[in-house]
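Deliverable D2.4 — example input (structure tokens):
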């Protein structure tokens, strides 16, 4: 089993959540529902669909931004393998 490299200043730098720089846009869909287009730099946009209202789509955007910020601030999913939670 390969061992992880020892911690150094370079590999201890916090990783940035891939959605931290995302932009969001609410789109009306043909069936009367709404979608949220999520665009991440250097990636193709994707659309999250089937919100009943514009307000529901905006609420999802707000909740998603909060989750991203929480995960980025806590280290959440973005710890290196040698960093164990206690």
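Example output (designed residues):
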């Amino acid at each position: 089993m390969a061992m992880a490299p020892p911690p150094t200043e370079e590999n201890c730098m916090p990783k940035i959540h891939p959605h931290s720089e995302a932009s969001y846009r609410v789109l009306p869909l043909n069936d009367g529902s709404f979608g949220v287009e999520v665009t991440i730099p250097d990636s193709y946009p994707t659309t999250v669909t089937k919100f009943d209202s514009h307000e529901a789509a905006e609420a999802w955007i707000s909740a998603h931004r909060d989750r991203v910020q929480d995960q980025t601030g806590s280290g959440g999913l973005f710890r290196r393998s040698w960093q164990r939670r206690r």
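The chain has a mean pLDDT of 79.
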